[in-house]
Design a protein that fits this description.
Elements: E1 2-3, E2 10-11, H1 18-21, E3 30-33, H2 40-47, H3 51-57, E4 71-74, H4 104-118, H5 129-133, H6 136-139, E5 148-151, E6 154-155, E7 161-162, E8 165-168, E9 174-176, E10 181-187, E11 195-200, E12 205-215, E13 222-223, E14 228-232, E15 242-249, E16 252-254
Antiparallel strand pairs: 1-2, 3-4, 5-8, 6-7, 8-15, 9-14, 10-11, 10-13, 11-12, 12-14, 12-15, 15-16
Helix pairs in contact: 2-3
Length: 267
């Protein structure tokens, strides 16, 4: 209220029209200084202008984060009428609920298959002169360790499926590459396997060596048939020294005993 010079009585100021108060239907462009918490969409509601039009008018991206004190030009209303205009806010994406955790055995298989199928590593080496001279090497793999098989491939009476074979060995025994190849994985992130090495061979073959005490190779290394790649141990889900050995064609596990020679096996 304003007091007059003559009477000193309060006198109400003229009431502004709603369009003027909210700047709806402005006939010419204006400027606005950004206050805390204001966005393109709040300016759109305040001035009755499509927020994307405000962004384009100022050469700003549609998802711009306005800064306090920033001067934004407000374009004139195309219709000159007061009132709100219809526009939609960006869609809100609901978070995807976490997937149910599969069983440990199934997760181990999936983790191994994921590495085999998706991890990019250099291609396995081509056939060398030794393999050309000895054709049997092209179809077979050497035993990775010398020891006794304590668990064979396939389903067990308790319902657990062994995706490979387990071979009892002394602690610290040398673990050898079953054939020439390239290391696709070397680490201990896969639950249950302990220190694990995966080697990718030519023609889509992959070998796995688990429960090692030490690893001597890293991802991307080229290895030769018979090369020592690890020391056997009891890491992961086992309590006694042993090697869990898997042979896969692509992502499908096969029985290693059908492909290993007998020269270094102990039954």
């Amino acid at each position: 209220p304003v007091r007059t010079a003559d009477t000193g009585t309060p006198q109400a100021q003229p009431v502004r029209a709603e369009a003027e108060q909210r700047n709806f239907g402005a006939s010419r462009p204006t400027v606005h200084r950004v206050a805390p918490g204001e966005t393109l969409f709040s300016l759109g509601r305040k001035y009755g202008i499509n927020p994307y039009r405000i962004a384009a008018y100022n050469g700003l991206p549609r998802n711009v984060q306005l800064k306090v004190g920033q001067v934004v030009r407000i374009p004139a209303s195309s219709s000159g009428r007061s009132g709100r205009i219809a526009y939609s806010s960006p869609p809100i994406t609901k978070p995807t609920p976490p997937a149910r955790k599969p069983s440990t055995e199934r997760q181990q298989r999936k983790d191994t298959e994921r590495i085999v199928q998706t991890d990019p590593v250099p291609p396995a080496p081509s056939v060398d002169r030794e393999t050309q001279a000895r054709p049997e090497l092209a179809n077979g793999f050497r035993w990775p360790v010398r020891g006794r098989v304590i668990s064979t491939f396939g389903e067990k009476p308790n319902g657990v499926r062994n995706e490979g074979i387990n071979i009892a060995v002394p602690e610290g025994a040398d673990v050898h590459a079953a054939s020439d190849g390239v290391v696709a994985y070397a680490g201990n992130e896969l639950k249950g396997y302990g220190n694990l090495v995966l080697i990718r061979h030519r023609n889509g073959w992959v070998t796995a060596y688990a429960h090692n005490k030490e690893l001597f190779v890293k991802r991307g290394d080229r290895v030769r048939r018979g090369q020592v790649i690890a020391k056997a141990g009891s890491t992961g889900s086992v309590k006694t020294p042993q090697l869990h050995f898997e042979l896969r064609k692509g992502a499908s596990a096969v029985d290693p005993l059908k492909y290993l020679g007998t020269a270094t096996a102990m039954n």
